Amino acid sequence: MNNRLYGNLIFELSKEGRKGYSLPKNHFGSYEIPAEMKRAEEAQLPECDELTVVRHYTNLSNNNFGVDTGFYPLGSCTMKYNPKINEEMAALPQFQNLHPEQPVETVRGAQALVTLLEKSLCALTGLAHFTFKPYAGAHGELTGLMTIDNYHRSRGDMARKKVIVPDSAHGTNPASAAVCGLEIVEVKSLANGQVDFEDLQRLVAEQGTEIAAMMMTNPNTLGLFETRIPEIAQLIHDCGGLMYYDGANLNPMLGACRPGDMGFDVMHINLHKTFSTPHGGGGPGAGPVGVREGLQDCFPFVSPYQGNYGVMMRAYAYILSLGREHVKEVGPLATLNANYIKESLKDVYELPINTICCHEFVFDGLKDKSTGVTTMDVAKRLLDYGYHAPTIYFPLLFHESLMIEPTENESKETLDGFIAVMRQIAEEAKTDPELVKGAPHDTPIGRVDDVLAAKHPVTTYRQLQAENV
């Protein structure tokens, strides 16, 4: 765009002496600020009129992409529509204006909502108790592992310090185990994407007395249902370990089966994924942890408060909106949408595991490798067509991974539009590969140096000297 207000930083729009505000009259008197708390020089704040500020930030907001503006097929992170009724309920002043330190007798309604949400989650997961203290999914993972560690300690079994993690697992699994002071033991996957049961048997035979738990996602990171999960759970339980369920992929399970019935003892739920609360941008999150009967006394102290209460409210509103009957349709519809896209594109994109998937699936780049067009190129070209790119280069099992996860909310028309664009990009890769390799072409900025941005991020504005401009 040529609009100067769109492309410039707010600091660059600043003109000395311009004001867009007026402060109220001082009713508090004058107080001396200690010298050690004063700035050495005045803060470099932009000086802009109100209209410039409004236009600048409105234009920036129009450039933001979200579920409300377009299709967001981000694999491994369920990015579903957030119904507006959820926001209306969370905005009720009786809830929104609560303070975490106010007397208990004044928050009985809020406490009742937490109790009702717990009952709902127990019914949906097959577990007996939940704690809502964790503030995000990763915090929930850590809380769940600490619960497992506390369980073994309570029995005097101090040797159990190893956690089995599949090689296809989410990266947070080994990270959470390490933060908890546990050792990660990797179990291999078979060519069909499922856990290698024989390799697992070998690990348990060699290290069974040291195994604290096995962490799994079912369906797994490839979007495939682990068909031998009862045998896996039995094997881990027989050696004295517990089963931990990563709730990142819970969405396709709603209405189909429950982790507790599969043999899992502990799990976390990403309320901001499965239960439609706002997701992305660093928060807010919520990662309640559920356990089977008998483990509730092993919950660790991770917070004096009930997590992000507004997220919990939104999740409960979502559950009530769907009701007992329609919540059962979530998983089957998400699975249907994923398989529809997969089957519609597998003739032009490489499908390394050609089988029925659950909520997500993984391509290994374009089928025609001779074009030199990579998964990164495909993802960048999607931006020109107005779609958010799927997750790319994850999982690490395939060289050119492209993970797609439509949710149950998306219509057939939306899916057909996405399929048509993906096919168009595949055709462009053959006829004009440089067009795809140079994408995106219609965004405010082109490709950035991701490594440089990660290693040397510029997080503050510094006024450039005239000679450097």
TrEMBL record:
Molecular functions per Gene Ontology: glycine binding; glycine dehydrogenase (decarboxylating) activity; pyridoxal phosphate binding
Catalytic reactions of this protein: N(6)-[(R)-lipoyl]-L-lysyl-[glycine-cleavage complex H protein] + glycine + H(+) = N(6)-[(R)-S(8)-aminomethyldihydrolipoyl]-L-lysyl-[glycine-cleavage complex H protein] + CO2
GO BP, one annotated term: glycine decarboxylation via glycine cleavage system
Start and end residues of each Glycine dehydrogenase C-terminal domain: 333-430
SUPFAM superfamilies recorded: PLP-dependent transferases
Protein EC: 1.4.4.2
Domain of life assignment: Bacteria
Cross-referenced PANTHER family: GLYCINE DEHYDROGENASE (DECARBOXYLATING), MITOCHONDRIAL, GLYCINE DEHYDROGENASE, DECARBOXYLATING
Protein name listed in UniProt: glycine dehydrogenase (aminomethyl-transferring)
Gene that produces this protein: gcvPB
